[in-house]
Design goal:
heterodimer; A: 518 residues; alpha/beta; FAD/NAD(P)-binding domain; 20% strand; B: 194 residues; mainly alpha
């Protein structure tokens, strides 16, 4: 075992949140070390292939997943430089004001320790740094904020035919806000609309961490060590102060790094796993909330065939348009929850979300015939529905251990009934939209889940949450958490913009208050 | 016109070329295209490399299953694909995405053996020797409900995974996209299909 020179901050994970924190702290003159569990990757590794890009996801064997609605580990995870943000779809939304005040307004769920107004300046700052394309005026549901720095991305035939259905029903659509360049932005190229976002964007049009904050962090002096699996946060005997982390290097050797500040920005399953493994009963776990309130979004796709060619190979994986006419929470609907539509996703023939899996019942010659037709005539849109928080949805440690001797995690999850009702209502509306759009055949996929959140939620009280509104552990003031694991509620939108705004706010807080922490 | 505008123009041109391709692409052309996709070692002096994970009976079963799931999958190399991936340090099969809580090689071996045993038990014949109509009926059955006595991973999951493997080799490559008339438009082209 070797002990490296002490650093100011050690950051576990090089994804969107970790890279942003690293860039801010390094620019402030701090000595920053990032430990990334996966291998080193660069833009040249982002091969345009649904088969080859499976390298970007974590190998099996770190987290077992179960319950009625199992959370996805393998598909949504990241593995290597940039974490899951390296292959994310870059649908960047703000949460709405009501998402921060669910308990106060509706008597269910929990409140965040901060309001939308608290977070708004950091949304604005991050969107300027990263570069977002969209049309704020057409997004009539959008909470107050600065207009997007780039114009909206183009809409192709698939988006146009589906928008027709929304319009006929008196519903509205707007260009999907994306962290993808519609025009060259800060030295990065504009998107060429080839639909390979899911395989990683090697031209830098999509704001993955290599294109943005990670490169800035390294330029400012931060260091990154790959193939380094963090197993524990090291602490004082009382566990009230972090002193560094224990990790296993590429050779499998145990290492320690001492740091004034420890930031956990690993994937949503790994943060509770590390905390639970750090100390008997879990570190920063006086509330018993470490690993609890894991959440996800319900999701399904609406599919339809249309008379006209939909050109569904064009655009972005995340989609072309958004509709949030059913976002506002209202108990009179019969359920509590918000939802969005991501409209006209760019499609590839194969892979989990490929054309082939839109009809898993077909095989043999009929599957060939279907694929031939679907490549020209298929249109789709993706439902994103709120999964309400439930403390019984949780990550725990198991008796099984990985190759480093670290206990494996087990995640159990079941959508609350309100979330299932929200999903069911959304799918019925989605079918109505496609019928109004003139689809000649309409079908849907089964209920699934995406966007894992929670597990180390923020809150006002050390009695029912793990961190405060800055991601600072209530019980360990020099331990910070970054990422969607902080979310007390899920909202009905993709989480990366919000987790980035939270990380930006935490990083600024850290810099301003460093003398009280170091 | 900047570089991105030029690229977008190329995308739109590819869109037009795709439409032109489709006008000439009948079913016969597509069938011939898949047939010609056979991974062939003919013309080379070296024999085809041995399979490293799957046994010869398992290869026969998987080829027959692939042909049933998506005609042309055997010729497109489904068994080579699965075997290559299982032999690699980092298998890139779709199985990776479903959080199956056991070893990937065991999943394929046990599933293929279970299919073979089911065929022997119900038809007293190897799966690959069954008439196509019988294979279709059997695949339809395991897709819907796990047969009684099935001695492997869940049959519905095996159907889903093997079907995805077939789609990968038939349509997940640059040649496969071309068969659908979909422009591949790679930023970085894969150095080989898998």
């Amino acid at each position: 075992m070797a002990t490296r020179e002490q650093v100011d901050a050690v950051i576990v994970g090089s994804g969107a949140a970790g890279s942003l924190m690293a860039a801010t702290l390094a620019a402030a003159g701090k000595k920053v070390l990032i430990l990334e569990a996966g291998p080193q990757r660069g833009m040249s590794d982002l091969v345009s292939s649904q088969i080859w890009s499976r390298r970007l996801k974590v190998p099996a064997g770190t987290t077992m997943t179960g319950g009625r609605d199992p959370l996805s580990v393998g598909f949504a995870s990241g593995w290597g430089t940039g974490g899951s943000a390296l292959h994310h779809y870059a649908c960047w939304f703000r949460l709405h004001e009501e998402d921060f005040e669910m308990k106060s307004r509706f008597g269910q769920g929990v409140d965040w320790p901060i309001s939308y107004a608290d977070l708004r300046p950091w949304y604005d700052r991050v969107q300027e740094e990263v570069g977002l394309s969209g049309d704020a005026e057409k997004e009539i549901w959008r909470p107050a904020g600065a207009p997007y720095p780039m114009p909206a991305l183009p809409v192709f035939a698939q988006g146009e035919v589906i928008a027709r259905g929304f319009e006929k029903l008196g519903l509205r659509t707007a260009p999907l806000p994306m962290a993808i360049n519609s025009v060259p932005y800060r030295g990065r190229s504009a998107c060429i609309q080839d639909g390979w976002c899911d395989s990683g964007c090697p031209i830098g049009a999509l704001a993955n961490p290599i294109a943005t904050h990670l490169t800035q962090a390294l330029s400012a002096g931060a260091e990154i060590i790959h193939d380094s699996k963090v197993s524990r946060v090291l602490t004082t005997p009382r566990g009230d102060r972090a002193t560094g982390v224990e990790y296993y290097d590429a050779a499998g050797e145990r290492q320690e790094i001492r740091a004034d500040v420890v930031i956990l920005a690993a994937y949503v399953f790994e943060i509770p796993r590390i905390l639970l493994n750090s100390r008997e009963g879990g570190l920063a776990n006086g509330s018993g909330m470490v690993g609890r309130s894991m959440m996800a979004h319900t999701t399904s796709n609406i599919f339809g065939f249309f008379e006209e060619d939909t050109d569904n190979f064009l655009g972005r994986t995340g989609g072309q348009l958004v509709s949030q006419d059913d976002y506002a929470k209202n108990l009179e609907k019969g359920y509590l929850g918000s939802s969005s539509w991501l409209i006209a996703n760019a499609l590839k023939p194969n892979d989990l979300l490929g054309i082939g899996n839109s009809r898993v019942d077909l095989f043999g010659a009929p599957l060939h015939e279907f694929l031939q037709k679907a490549a020209r005539k298929l249109a789709t849109m993706t439902f994103v529905g709120e999964g309400l928080p439930d403390p019984d949805n949780r990550v725990t440690l198991t008796a099984s251990r990985d190759r480093f001797g670290m206990p494996m995690a087990s995640a159990t999850h079941q959508f609350p009934e309100d979330s299932v009702k929200c999903w069911a209502a959304g799918i019925e509306r989605g079918k109505q939209v496609f019928a109004a759009a003139g689809a000649t055949e309409i079908w849907t996929g089964g209920r699934n889940q995406m966007h894992t959140m929670g597990g180390t939620v923020m809150g006002r009280s050390a009695g029912d949450s793990v961190t405060n509104g800055y991601g600072q552990a209530h019980e360990v003031p020099n331990l910070f958490i970054a990422g969607s694991s902080l979310f007390p509620t899920a909202g009905g939108v993709n989480p990366t913009f919000t987790l980035s705004a939270l990380a930006r706010r935490s990083a600024d807080y850290l810099v301003e208050n460093w003398s009280t922490l170091g | 016109m900047d570089a991105s505008s030029t690229l977008l123009t190329e995308v739109l041109r590819a869109q037009g070329e795709r439409r032109a391709f489709l006008k000439g692409a009948g079913a016969g052309l597509l069938a011939a295209s898949l047939s010609s996709a056979r991974i062939s070692y003919a013309g080379t002096e070296a024999p085809p490399p041995a399979y490293r994970v799957l046994t010869p009976p398992q290869v026969r079963t998987l080829d027959a299953l692939g042909e049933t799931l998506l005609p042309g999958a055997a010729a497109a190399g489904i068994s080579r694909y699965v075997d290559d991936q299982l032999a690699s340090a980092e298998p890139l099969l779709l199985l990776k995405y479903v959080d199956f809580p056991a070893d990937s090689t065991d999943f394929y071996r046990q599933s293929l053996d279970a299919l073979e045993q089911h065929s022997q038990a119900t038809h007293q014949q190897a799966f690959h020797a069954l008439a196509m109509a019988d294979r279709i009926a059997m695949v339809g059955q395991i897709a819907q409900q796990q047969p009684e006595g099935w001695a492997g991973p869940p049959s519905q999951l095996f159907y889903f995974i093997a079907r995805n493997d077939a789609v990968d080799v038939c349509y997940g490559t640059e040649e496969g996209f071309a068969r659908l008339g979909v422009p591949y438009m790679a930023h970085i082209a894969p150095p080989r299909p898998w």
